[in-house]
Amino acid sequence: MSRTLVAAPAGRSQAAGRVQPGQTLENPVTGERFTFTHTSAETGGELLAFDLALRPGGAVPMPHVHPIQRERFEVVAGRMRFRVGRRTVIAEPGDVVVVEPGVVHSFANAGEQEARVHVAVRPALAMEEMLAEVVALAEAGRMTARGMPRNLLDLARLARAYDREAHAPLLGLRLQRALLAPLVALARRRDRRRGARQAAVWSAA
To answer: What is the rounded CA–CA span in Å between residue 172 and residue 107?
Structure first.
């Protein structure tokens, strides 16, 4: 039986490259595989949609909040566990879980087989770039086993660059930005130095 489960709002408070429709990205750490069906460029920023495949035991790295976006999950195959606000929802093929802006949520594969979910996010914002950058960091070995950046400066820069797309639960956007500001400044300084060193190497080649 199909169900639609909607969470009420909890109060509203560059990257690895632009993806293309049909492109697939896989995070080797979290077990998430994204195949993009509709991109921001294609929909004028209105929609980002992708097919998510999640291996057994795979999960999103941490609970999070989308302050602006509405996220819709439709389970196509397998068994998923969603934590939406204070509720835990087990969803199976045909079930739909909707997360409104401002609602803390997380998800994981709750079965023994690969789970497949169609995800639609409105508006798109820069979420596809965020996903691409996270996958690039994981492929480079710069993520922990929990799927978080190993380097605190990488974490701070990523969190600040994409805080309109997602931020940590319990922290409002302004508080998160204030807490991260010193680390973000250090990360930008580090990145400028790296860029200068790379430019020197290229000019000497």
So the answer is: 21
The answer to whether the Cα torsion of 125, 131, 132, 137 is positive or negative is positive
**Order of strands, edge to edge, in the sheet holding 80-84?**
87-91, 80-84, 105-109
107 three-state secondary structure: strand
Place of tokens 């596809």: 128
Would you list the domain boundaries of the chain?
A: 4-15+23-161
53 and 116 Cβ atoms separated by less than 8 Å: yes
**Category of 17 on φ-ψ map: left (φ > 0), alpha (ψ -120 to 50) or beta:** left
**Residues 178, 181: Cα–Cα separation, whole Å:** 5
> How confident is the model over 1-39, as pLDDT tens digits?
444 444 433 332 243 457 899 999 999 998 899 999 999
Amino acid at 79: R
Q: What is the pLDDT of residues 173-197, one digit of tens each?
A: 777 888 788 888 888 888 787 776 7
Domain 4-15+23-161 sits in CATH 2.60.120.10? yes
